[in-house]
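Budget justification note: compute hours in this period were largely spent on complex prediction jobs such as the one shown. Inputs:
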Amino acid sequence: MVKSAPAMDEYRAGEAAVALSTDEVSRFADLLKGHGDRLTDLWTEEVARTLRGRLSQAELQRQTAELQRAFASAASAGAQDLGAEAASELRALLSELTISRARQGFTSTETAVSVYALKDAMLKILEEGETADGSTLRDYVAFSGFVDRAALYTFDAFVRAREELIADQAEQLLELSTPVVKLWEGVVAVPLVGTLDSARAQVVMERLLQTLVDTGSPYAIIDITGVPAVDTQVAQHILKTVVAARLMGADCIISGIRPQIAQTIVALGIEFGDIATKASLADALRHVLKITGSQKLER
Amino acid sequence: MTERIEVTADQDVVRVRQLVRTVAVGVNLSLVDQTKLVTAASELARNTLVYGGGGTVEIGQVQNGRRAGIRIVFTDRGPGIADVELALTDGYTTGGGLGLGLSGARRLVDEFDIDTAVGQGTSITVTKWCR
Amino acid sequence: MDRVPILKIGDVLLVSIQIDMEDHVALQLQEDLAERIVVTGCHGVVIDISALDIVDSFVGRTLATIASISRVLDAETVVVGMRPAVAITLVELGLSLPGIRTALNVELGMDLLVQERMLVPMNDGDDESHD
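Corresponding output:
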C-alpha cells in the first residue's frame, strides 16, 4: 500500500514547458483509445523483451492494458500534464505499479522502461498510419514528453517507497533497542543501552511512560549502565522523563551510575535534586521494595 | 486552505481545540506533537478571548518542501501588549494564576511570531512541522 | 449546561471527566465539589482525567484550586490517569501542578488515599450517585 506519492506541487513546477496543448491532448486520447488493442499488444511486446520472462505474459498484458486505460482516461479528461487533477488516477496507478514491481524485485529502471515502452509502441502505430508527416512527428514529440514524465514519476515513487521502508525499519530498530521490563509487582525497568540522542530519548520517554500506564506500575528504574557518556542533553532528557512520570503519579530511580558519570554530572552542575540514584539495578530494586514494603506495613 | 473560527465565548475555545486536533491528525503529526499543538492553541485562543476581548483563529495546512505542517493565527483587536519581552518571560502573568501563557505556548511549537502594539490589538502566528 | 458528575464511593468522591470541558464547566465542577465535600463529609477526592487528551493551564489551575479548597475542607485530592502525551506536554509547558497528588489510575488513587488518610475502607452498600 502506498502511503504517499510524490506531491502534486513538485510536478506543477516545471510542467509548463512540457505541457500538451488541448488539441494535442485530444489527439493523444484518440491515439490511445482508437488503437486500443493493437497498441497494448505492441507495448506488451516491448516490455516483455526487457523483463525477460520474469512476469507472466498474461499478467504483463493485464498491467499494460490497465496502464493504457489510465493514460487514455487522463487524456480524455483533458490532462495536459501529469500534475493535472485529471491525471490523479494515472499517478495513483503508476505508484501502485512501482511498489508492486519493487516488491517483486524489479529495479526502478525496469519499471520506468516499462512505461517508456509506450513511446515505441506509439511510434510504430504513427508510422503505420496513412499520414506520417511533420505534424505526426510533432505530435509524437509532445506525447513522448507526457510519457517521459510518467516514467520519471515511477522513479520518484520508488525512492519514496524506499525512504518509507527505511524510516519504518529505523523506528522498529529504535523500539527493539529500548525494551521496558517488568521487574516486580509495580516496578518496571528500562535498561538504556548506547548513545542517547534526542530522537531516541523521545522514544524511550514515551515508551516508558506508556508502560507505566499499561502495567499500572508506580515505579520505574532507569538503568544507565549501558550509556557510555552523559552530557547535559542526555541528563535533561532523563530529568524530563522523571518529571513527567511524577506528574502521572509514578516515580523513577536512576541506577547504573558509574564513577566517571557521577563525576561528569557533578562537574556539569547537573542537579538530580530529589531523584533517587543508585549504583546498580539491584540496589534500585531493593530500594523500591523497601518503600513499597513499608507502605504495605502501614496499612 | 484555511479554516476560521470566531472566538467570542468559552465554547469557541473548545471548538478551536477540536479543529486543531482534527487538522493535526490529518497531517499525521505524532501524538505528542498533536497534544502540544492543541494545548498551545487552547492557551492562545483563551488569551484571545480573555485578554483580547474576542477575536479570530485561522488554521491552515502548510508545506515546506516535503514536510507538512500546521499554521495557526490568533488575532484580536484588544489592548495589545505593551512589553512583549516581559510577557514572553517565564512566569509572567497579568491575570493571576500560574502565568505561563505566551512563553509556555512558545515552547510547544516550532515557530512563534507575535505582532502587537498598544491600542492596536495582537496577532500571534504559530507553526508546527511534522518530523 | 454540561455538568461533570460526582460519585460518592464510601468516604471518597469520584469525579470522572469525560468531556472536553468549557472553562465555565470546569469552574462549575470546582463549586459542585466543594459543596459535595461539605454535604457528604467525605475525606477523599479522586479526579480521573484519563479521558482528557489535553490539560492546559486553565485546567491545571482548576485542579490545583480544587485540591486547595478540598484540603481546607479536610479532604485530600488525588488526580489520576494522566496520559503520557499530556504529562510530556505539561513538562514542556513548565506547568508543575503544585500541591496536587497524582496516581496512575483510580485504584492506585484510592489506595493512596486509604494509606494517607486511614480512610474508612469502602463498604459495598454505601454508594450513591449525583448528577
